[in-house]
Amino acid sequence: MQKVFKVGLIGCGHIAETYFRGHKYFNNFRIIKCADIEHSAAKKCASVYKISAVSVKDILKDKEIEIILNLTIPKAHFEVSKKALLNNKHVYTEKPMAIDVEDGKELVKIAKRKKLYIGNAPDTFLGGGNQKSKELIEKNLIGKIILGNIIFAYPGVQSYHPNPEPWFAKKEGGPVIDMGPYYLTALVNLLGPAKQVWGSLMWNKKKRVIGIGPRKGKSIKVLCPTTYLGTIFFKNKTIIRFTLSFDVIAHHRNHIELYGDKGSILVPDPNMFGGSVFTCKKLGGYWKEHKTNEMPLGKINIRQKSLRANEAPINANYRGVGLAEMAYCIQNKKKHRCNGELSLHVLDIIKSIMHAAKIGKRINLKTSCQIPKLFSNKEVNKILK
Ligand SMILES: NC(=O)c1ccc[n+]([C@@H]2O[C@H](COP(=O)([O-])OP(=O)(O)OC[C@H]3O[C@@H](n4cnc5c(N)ncnc54)[C@H](O)[C@@H]3O)[C@@H](O)[C@H]2O)c1
C-alpha cells in the first residue's frame, strides 16, 4: 500500500503551482500546509489550494508534516533546508540546492547524520527525453561518447519578468546558476561525474531595462557576468563544450549534442520532460527519431502557453516527480535519484565554472557522485496515479 506523505510547503511563489499540479499525477504526496516569509503570499496560496497557511516557524515544528518542500529563492534554500533538517523533516528543494558549495556540503552532512532524505530539483532528467537518451546510450547505440556540445542562450528575463533583479544579482545571478542545474544534471545522468572545468565569461551590459509590469522602463543594474563559454572534462574522459548566455537574441543549435565513436545523439531540452531523441550513425546519414510521447513521463500534459518564456506552449511537465520518487524511496528505504550527492556535485560544477572563468584557470572538482540508475517505466508507474 502506497503511503501518502504529508508535505509542508515553504515559499509560495511562481513555481508552487506546478507542484500542486503534481497532486494530479503522483500518488504518494500531498501538500497540506504552506508558509512564506510574506504571510500574504502563504494566505493567497492556501485559499487557492484549500489548505492552511501557517507561519514558517510553525510549519517547521508541525508534527503532522514529514517532508518540507522548499520553493524559496536560491539564496534562502540553505537556511530553510537546514532548519527543516534540524527539525527532523525530510526536505526537497528547488534548484540549486544552495548558492555555496560549503553550504551544500553541510546540508548533505546533516541529512546523513540525522538519517533524513535531502532531495533537489531539477527532476527533469527523470523525464522521457533524458531517460530515452540514457537507454540508447546504455544500449551502446552511438558507442563510447567522446565529445559534445550544450547550449542555453536567450536574451534574459528582463523583458517578461516584472522583478528580474535576482537573475542579475552579484552572487546568485547569471546563466550558469540559473539554467546550469538542468543541463549539468542531465549530463551527469548520461555521462557520470565531472572532474575538471574551465571557461571564459562576458559581462555584456551593466544595465538592463524592465520590459513589463509596474516598473516597466526602469533600468536595473547587472551585477554579474551574463555569458559563460567553456569546457567540462568528465571522469569517463568525455569533453563537453558549453555556451550559457543571457546575451543571445536567437539561435538554431540543439540543446545537447553528444558524439560517440559509433554515432551521434541529440538529447532534447533538459528543462522539459518530453521531446524526441535523434540519433545518426553515418556522416550525412539519416537522423532516426526516437519518440518519447508514449513514455509515462514524456506524454504531453500541458497544452497552453505558460508565463515561462523558455517553456514550449505544448509540452510534458511532470515537475514534482523527484519529490514523489524521494517519498517512494523513504517508504521503501532506497536511494533516491534526485539525491544530495548529485545536486552537490552539480553545484560544485556550477561554482567551479564561474570561478574558473573569473580567474582564467582550470579548476578540479572537489566532489563526485554516483551515476543515477535508469528510471524504468515499471518504477515510474509505481508512483503515478
Ligand atoms: N518560476 C519558475 O519558472 C521556476 C522554474 C523552475 C525552478 N524555479 C526555482 O524555484 C524557486 C522559486 O522560484 P519562484 O519563481 O517560485 O520564486 P518567487 O520569487 O516567485 O517565490 C519565492 C517565494 O519564496 C518566499 N521566500 C523567500 N525567502 C524566504 C524565506 N527565507 N522563508 C520563507 N519564504 C521565503 C518569497 O516571499 C516568495 O513568495 C527558485 O529556486 C527557482 O530557481 C523556478
Strand order of the main beta sheet, please? Answer: 16-15-14-13-7-12-11-8-17
What characteristic shape results from the CA principal axes? globular
Distance between the termini: 13 Å
Query: SSE order in H/E notation?
Result: EHEHEHEHEHEHEHEEEEEEEEEHHEH
Number of strands: 17
**CATH domain fold name of the largest domain:** Dihydrodipicolinate Reductase, domain 2
Please report the first level of CATH classification, the CATH class of the largest domain. Alpha Beta
Mean pLDDT: 96
User: What is the total number of structural domains?
Assistant: 2
Alpha-carbon Rg, integer? 20 Å
Major β-sheet annotation: 9 strands, mixed
Assigned CATH superfamily of the largest domain = Dihydrodipicolinate Reductase, domain 2
- Number of helical elements: 10
Itemize the secondary structure elements and their pairings.
Blueprint: E1 5-10, H1 16-25, E2 29-35, H2 39-49, E3 52-53, H3 56-61, E4 67-70, H4 74-86, E5 90-93, H5 101-113, E6 118-120, H6 128-138, E7 145-153, H7 175-191, E8 194-202, E9 207-209, E10 219-221, E11 227-234, E12 239-245, E13 256-260, E14 264-267, E15 277-280, E16 288-290, H8 321-332, H9 340-359, E17 363-364, H10 377-383
Parallel strand pairs: 1-2, 1-4, 2-3, 4-5, 5-6, 7-12
Antiparallel strand pairs: 7-13, 8-11, 8-17, 9-10, 11-12, 13-14, 14-15, 15-16
Helix pairs in contact: 4-5, 5-9, 7-9
The structure holds nicotinamide-adenine-dinucleotide (NAD).
Nicotinamide-adenine-dinucleotide is lined by residues 10-15, 36-38, 41, 56, 71-74, 76, 80, 94-95, 308.
